[in-house]
Amino acid sequence: GKSLRQAFSNKIIQGFAYVVVGTAVRAVKQIYSNVLELDKAITDLQVATGKSRDETTKLIKDYAKLGKEIGATTTEVAAAADTWLRQGYSVAEANELIANTMKLSKLGQLDSAEAAKALTSAMKGYNVAVEDSIEIVDKFTAVDMEAAVSAGDIATAMAETAVSADIAGVSMDALIGYIATVSEVTQ
Questions:
Q1: Is the pLDDT score of 7 beyond 70?
Q2: CA 158, CA 126: separation in Å to the nearest integer?
Q3: Which pTM value belongs to this model?
Q4: Are 45 and 27 in contact (CB under 8 A)?
Q5: For the segment 28-62, what is each residue's pLDDT rounded down to a tens digit?
Q6: Which of 104, 124, 131, 138 is an S-S bond match for 115, by CB 3.0 to 4.6 Å?
Q7: Which of 186, 63, 172 shows the shortest CA–CA distance to 125?
Q8: SS3 string of 98-128?
Q9: 3-state secondary structure the chain
Q10: What is the rounded distance in angstroms from the CA atom of residue 76 to the CA atom of residue 115?
C-alpha cells in the first residue's frame, strides 16, 4: 500500500509539474508574440510619422493609455493611428480619429482596421470634417440600438457605398436608413 501511495503521489506531482511548465511555456510564447507585434506597430508608426524611434515609443505609450481608457490593446490603437497618419492627418487629428475608430470598433464589433476603413469611407464620401467624425459613429450606433442590424454591419456596408450614394444625392442619414432596412430584412 505504501509503495502504491508513493507511486500515485509521484504521478500527481509529475502531472502538476507538466501543467505548470506547459502554462509557463505558453505564457512566454505569448509574451514573445506580443513583443513582436508591438515592435512592428512601432516601426509602422515610425514610418508614418517620420519621427525617431524614441519619439515613436513615447507616442506608443500615449496610445497604451488611450487603449486602457477605451478597452483596446495598444496594438489595435497603433494600427488605427498608422491608418490615419498615413492618410496625411496630423497627430492631433489622428488622435481624435483614433478615439472614434476605437469606439466604432468596440461598439460595432469590428477590428480596428475595418473600423478605420469604414470611418474613412464615410468621412471622405460625405466630406465630414475630423471634428464631426464622432457624429458618424453616433449615427451607426443609434441605428444599431433601434434595428436588428449592428453598427459594424452598417459601417461595412457604408464603406462600400458612401461615395456612390453621395454622388447620387443620397444623404448620409438616408443611406444609413436604407442599409439598416435592407440588412434587417435580409440578415
A1: no
A2: 11
A3: 0.70
A4: no
A5: 888 877 777 877 777 887 787 788 888 888 888 88
A6: 104
A7: 172
A8: HHHHHHHHHHHCCCHHHHHHHHHHHHHHCCC
A9: CHHHHHHHHHHHHHHHHHHHHHHHHHHHHHHHHHHHHHHHHHHHHHHHHCCCHHHHHHHHHHHHHHHHHHCCCHHHHHHHHHHHHHCCCCHHHHHHHHHHHHHHHHHHCCCHHHHHHHHHHHHHHCCCCHHHHHHHHHHHHHHHHHCCCCHHHHHHHHHHHHHHHHHCCCCHHHHHHHHHHHHHHHC
A10: 11
The three cell numbers locating residue 115 = 473600423
**Burial of 42: CB neighbours in 10 Å, binned 0-12, 13-18, 19+:** middle
Task: Indicate the range of 13-22, 51-60, 83-92, 109-118 predicted with least confidence.
Answer: 13-22
CA distance 31 to 76: 16
φ/ψ of 84, rounded to 5, equals: -70, -40
Tell which residue, 66, 156, 175, 152, has the closest CA to residue 104.
Answer: 152
Q: Are 162 and 121 in contact (CB under 8 A)?
A: yes
